[in-house]
Amino acid sequence: MAHRVVILGGGFGGVAAATRLRALLPPDDEIVLVDRRDYFMMGFRKTGEVVGAEPMADGRRSLEALTRAGIDVVQGEITAIDPQSRAVDVDGRRIAGDALLVALGARTVPDAVPGLREHGIDIYDPDEVPRAATALSELTSGSVAIGIFGAPYRCAPAPYELALLANEAARKRGATLQFTAFTPQPMSVPVLGQVGCGGIEDRLAGAGIDFRPATKAVRVESGTVVVDGGADIPFDLLLAVPPHRVPEVVADAGLTGPSGWVRADARTLETAFPDVYAVGDVTGIPMANGQPLPKAGVLAAAQGEVVAERIAARLGGGEPTATFDGAGYCFLEIGGGQAMLVRGNFLAEPAPDVELTAPSEEFLAEKQRFERERLDAWFGAG
């Protein structure tokens, strides 16, 4: 009897799971991938467009390309998820499966901070990125604030990469801009610890970028970020990382825990519902030190492949053995044709074992290879 696997989300986790499942399952088994967007995009391309270095479109591929590999792609709005029945409603159509994977990522919520939508630009929203790029390129003098308005958020080093690259781009075009980067967290990327964060924060200081940790913004007014218990931050341009939340349809399905994120086993990615899994940014998985597992595409993809292995084993009548080992990495481009690498085992005991490497041109080349190889493997050489 043929089976059907339903995958919600066409990001790293969903696409990795779908392509791996297609390689593992018999041809008559269905793999259905659902997303409201019709494309996949490399997330770090947003920064490239904001600073005028490279267009987002170069890192975008049509999800329809997956159909050539035998994956059914449904574009539409998910209006309900029924985890008990492993079913989903998409624009009035119900799709049920023998297994369900929730990989819907995290949404940004600018309205969670009064005034943020009116006075800032959401740099994590692809639809807002062109506006950010135009505003930054047209600013010849003044102050630019790059603000993190809540944690956890996707791709922890990204705001600092943006600060460094935007500062470099401004200098090259002769603009006199003062950059400030702020976060509510006690240091830039807490999973790195004091030493690793020092490597990032020293880079910011060396570039003349004001870094303000432990800075909780309570509201945004015209030209000012109002801070709880600290000095307010003036700006001529506010590039914002708004608070992140699970999609409303996920919360409505009863999949979230006290953290507000989907509860999934750290190793198997199983939820409380039989044959329902969750991977990537939508999950809240604690590391050994109590901090949440970072929200990163590489980790989501690795989790997606583990889920694919487990689903294939179960549907084939075997005992699933694949587990997520916690290993991962991400790139931090610093300018000057170089990048650093955040890498390690995020699920190590008794604490995450994660390091920040020294910068090199090779790591930037590796970042570019990573993008090219992933896109070609999933969507075909283009």
Automatic annotation (TrEMBL):
Transmembrane segments: none annotated. Residues 4-291 form the FAD/NAD(P)-binding domain. GO terms for molecular function: oxidoreductase activity. It comes from the Bacteria. This is NAD(P)/FAD-dependent oxidoreductase.
